[in-house]
Design goal:
The structure is a homodimer of 163-residue chains. Chain A contains 1 helix and 16 strands. The first copy, chain A, is mostly beta strands. In chain A, strands 1, 6, 8, 11, 13, 14 and 16 form a 7-stranded mixed sheet that branches. Chain A has a 5-stranded antiparallel sheet with strand order 2-12-7-15-5, with no helix packed on it. The longest helix of chain A is centred in the first third of the chain and has 4 residues, at 11-14.
């Protein structure tokens, strides 16, 4: 099995796969009489003509090393995960290689940061490393077509702690 | 000044104003090979023909008693606030009374819970009670029309701890 070490994430490293959403850097707007910094419209939301919804996911925390058997993508919509805790979490993504995932990359998403997978981007399922594994999820909740494609690896990858 | 005690929130009490989003009760779907409970599509999202976006708000925590000078509403879109921490937060809402807020109600939103204000619902600005005051916000980020109406009270209300 191939071992993939977890990397620290940066916006540049994550850009091929999606957006990082956080409140770092200067705000785009200061609202509420100076009491709130608005970091505005930070995700490329694309519902492919379907309807957007907000759901709450409660995922079982995983332990490292993590065996990656499967990745998935959503051909018809982006999918945004905003943590409802202050814990970091693991995100696994991959470029496309002729209809299946290329070698995956694994990122540790730091506290106070969400991710938005762009439409049709290969990613692992939600993998919190701490409980509770609660996330607000903004994705396509209705519309025509099949919005899930899965790929099972013949040989799983092993995701390990930071190299 | 009129004092308004903070109430515990329930879905029934909050229903005239919006939705509560949490992971209580049975999941709507169990996904990811049994590892994730999906509490599906829990907010009435209404962008009034405009575009939805995801932003991050970083609001200054408030202390009680809190003086409520102003409420606002968004005639063209719902607005959903999902906490990015495990802290409770304060939400103030009001029915409409001929174009201005009726007597406000104040709710303590418990940990692991978000709120979605329905389109054109009077509400106070974001009022966390603990730092960091970080929220994922799902609201209307572009489209025609003016999506903000504010009302300043002649006499402020005072929001106090739970009665």
């Amino acid at each position: 099995m191939t071992t993939i070490p977890i990397m620290d994430v940066t916006a540049a490293r994550f850009a091929p796969y999606g957006d990082l959403l956080d409140a770092r850097g200067p705000a785009d707007m200061v609202i509420n009489q100076g009491m709130c910094n608005r970091h505005h419209d930070r995700a490329r939301i694309d519902m492919g003509g379907g309807d957007v919804g907000v759901s709450v996911f409660d995922a079982t925390p995983r332990r490292l090393p993590y065996q990656l058997d499967l990745m998935e993508r959503h051909p018809l919509g982006s999918q945004c995960f905003m943590p409802m805790t202050e814990h970091p979490f693991l995100v696994i993504v991959a470029a496309d290689d002729g209809g299946k995932p290329a070698r995956p990359e694994a990122f540790l998403i730091p506290p106070h940061t969400g991710v938005n997978f762009h439409r049709n981007t290969w990613h692992g399922v939600l993998t919190p490393l701490h409980g509770p594994g609660l996330f607000a999820v903004i994705d396509r909740v209705s519309g025509d077509g099949v919005n899930l494609e899965e790929h099972v690896f013949d040989t799983p990858y092993v995701i390990t702690g930071q190299g």
